[in-house]
Amino acid sequence: MTSKSSFKYFENTNLIPFGWSGSGKPSLATTGNLSEYLHSLKRAVFFLEKDQNFLLANEGNPTAPDGDFNLLAFSLPSVPEDLGDPGFKKQYGLKYALYAGAMANGIASEDLVIALGRAGFMGSFGAGGLLPARVEQAILKIQSELLDKPYLFNLINSPFEPALEQQTCELYLKHGIKVIEASAYLTLTSSLIRYRAAGLLKLADGSIQISNRIIAKVSRKEVASKFLQPASEEVLKQLVADGMITEEQVKLARLVPMADDITVEADSGGHTDNRPLVGILPAIIKLRDTLQEKHHFAQPVRVGAAGGIGTPASALAAFMMGAAYVATGSVNQSCVESGSSEHTRNLLAQMESTDVAMAPASDMFEMGVKVQVLKRGTMFAMRSQKLYEIYQRYESIDDIPAPEREKLESTVFQKNLDEIWEECIRFFTERDPRQIERAMNNPKDKMALIFRWYLGLSSRWSNCGEKGREMDYQIWTGPSMGAFNDWVRGTYLEACGNRRAADVSLQLLTGAAYLLRIRILESQGLRFGSEIREFIPTQV
Ligand SMILES: Cc1cc2nc3c(=O)[nH]c(=O)nc-3n(C[C@H](O)[C@H](O)[C@H](O)COP(=O)(O)O)c2cc1C
């Protein structure tokens, strides 16, 4: 083992001996120039030895062992553009294999999607929870700004509001939205299948043109397998009968998988199965391979990774496990373009990875479904959990003992529950009157609607920065946000006012490309000091 200021060289017995020759003169390795050579990602870097001296070069060629120098280790250029599957980037017109996942209620805002699309990434507009008129507004704005640059829209499965999903899907077809991020599906709905099939066309050379692309976000193998195969025959036939698609499109739909890409989502902000990426990503890649063997699709489905991507190391880990691309979420919410309030972005910028908790989800409250939220600087996680416990314990609002009800009214709701019920009636009469009918007939359903008033508004308060309600903000986030904060502490990105989504994305991938270089060199026997092993973002 030989040691030199910031790196050590361990004889690597597996290495084939190489010499090196080059036109430029190698420099003696010093603490100062080591970092510079390593960070010049567009150039190769060679670690050389001559007469017991360590030298560095960034141009030259490996040669036979009797060259001018002994070659100890080298790395080819390693740039962020090269990470991920070239097919993914080509398909969507991207420079980088990274997209920002949807964040409901427009948290993944028009500005976020536009900023990313202009910078060689793409963003998924957070259409979940928004009414069609608001989504249409976003479509018009994004299309007029981005023109042919990349973007996508979220289509979220809404088992309790199927009409909303259908209307959103129709909007996407009407406005020619070419890529959607489909999420929260357990079974594939006719709206989703219609979107896919309606974009199929047979070309003169016999190949199939797919105009409506789907990136499906899943966290379970059984759901992934539905997207990795053609659409259900039964639904396709019904769509023809309803005049939504043609017979020809049914034939073509049998030959293509439901999705072009599958984003495997591990432990993330918001709705999550809290799965570790190291387990679920390889399992779904293997499933893709098995189903591709069976179906022989012209274009195999690509598999990407999301959930926990908040540092260069986590992005690189995903690529090393075979992810075609990565998708981020939590980190984008703390960026200036997000639809969250300044107060929320500040809280996010201060959180640690462990400052998260699972809390009842507003959309599937009765079923006990949970979402991952911030638990520092807000009491939402605790208060919503309390509501869920009360919901489980009692059959109706009237069963709640008076002292408990008063406490709820004074702390959580800050309103009388009768007044809240009146507000629920007004809200759902416009949006979905069946919910009111159901609640009128079932006191437990009525209690759920009243409790969902709090769960629904708390995320709106977080987005609009409702004064006096800070302790009730419902802020969806995952541990990746804390990991990101750790990484950028002490740099210009520590302040959330400096966090711009495209810059954050580029820093993540540049860091991943840098760490890839370090890992490659380590595999050849080099070991670096901690100041070299880290990628510190610097403002460009
Ligand atoms: C605030 C917030 C809201 C989200 N809303 C949605 C949504 O409406 N639809 C969706 O498909 N995913 C949603 N997600 C998930 C993200 O698109 C992304 O897949 C996830 O955040 C990635 O994991 P990470 O949070 O660890 O980065 C949301 C995530 C966050 C943090």
Describe this structure in words.
This protein is an alpha/beta fold and 540 residues long. The protein is 43% helix and 17% strand. The chain contains 21 helices and 22 strands. The strands form five sheets. Strands 9-10-11-12-15-16-18-19 form an eight-stranded parallel β-barrel, surrounded by five helices. Strands 4-6-5-8-3-7 form a six-stranded antiparallel β-sheet. Strands 1-2-22 form a three-stranded antiparallel β-sheet. The model has no long low-confidence stretch (mean pLDDT 94). The structure holds flavin mononucleotide (FMN).
Radius of gyration: 26 Å
Strand content: 15-25%
**Largest sheet, spatial ordering of strands:** 9-10-11-12-15-16-18-19
The poorly predicted ranges are none
List the bound ligands: flavin mononucleotide
The structure class reads: alpha/beta
| Largest sheet geometry | 8 strands, parallel, barrel
Q: What shape does the CA trace take? A: globular
Number of DSSP strands? 22
**Residue share in helix:** 40-55%
Distance between the termini: 38 Å
Mean pLDDT: 94
What oligomeric state best describes the polypeptide chains here? single chain
What is the count of helical runs? 21
Features:
540 residues, alpha/beta, eight-stranded parallel β-barrel, 21 helices, globular, binds flavin mononucleotide
